TrEMBL record:
The keyword Signal applies. It comes from the Bacteria. Residues 1-23 form the signal peptide. Keywords: Signal. PROSITE patterns: PROKAR_LIPOPROTEIN. It comes from Spirosoma sordidisoli. This is Lipocalin-like domain-containing protein.
Length: 167
């Protein structure tokens, strides 16, 4: 259980706030640009429905490998959603359950760009300026599946996060 408490926040922050730093590809159209149609992830509210790690890890110390870390997240975070605004702004919306811990704008907001050639979303988080890169594995009007890599205890972990469009 202690391992879960120590590692899970780091993994979550790594995925959501600073997975892989990279430079913006100058050849990619800017969000809101009329030259290319916006990707299907632009506009809808996206709520996380799965959060998997590869290799699987025993986070709760019960001797079994955990396959989906979503169950380890507090309910107040599981019902939150992301919105990729057409103008390139990333908006985090709270669900019906709110967390008691205040979050700063540096964590909650940010901007995004999309590289059509590499199918990557690059997110810059608010005033903190940390950068996260998501590889788009699957995208429909109802589902967004991304891959990202985090490093925990010196080991790279590949994450797969599935988001569902919600009203």
């Amino acid at each position: 259980m202690k391992r879960m408490i120590i590692l899970l926040p780091g993994v979550l922050l790594g995925v959501l706030l600073g997975t892989v730093a990279c430079k913006q590809d100058k050849a990619s159209p800017a969000p809101g640009s009329a030259s290319v149609a916006a990707p299907a992830f632009v506009g809808p509210r996206w709520q996380m429905t799965a959060f998997r790690l590869d290799p699987q890890t025993d986070f709760d110390g019960d001797g079994k490998l955990d396959t989906d870390l979503l169950s380890f997240m507090p309910a107040c975070d599981r019902d939150n959603a992301l919105v990729f605004d057409p103008a390139g702004k990333l908006i985090t919306t709270d669900g019906q359950i709110t967390c008691d811990t205040p979050e700063t704008e540096a964590v909650r907001g940010g901007s995004w760009t999309y590289n059509y050639a590499t199918r990557t979303i690059t997110i810059t988080h608010g005033s903190a300026g940390s950068v996260t890169t998501w590889e788009v594995a699957d995208l429909t009007s109802q589902t967004l599946t991304i891959h990202a890599t985090v490093t925990e205890e010196g080991k790279p972990l590949r994450t797969t996060i599935v988001w569902k469009a919600v009203p």
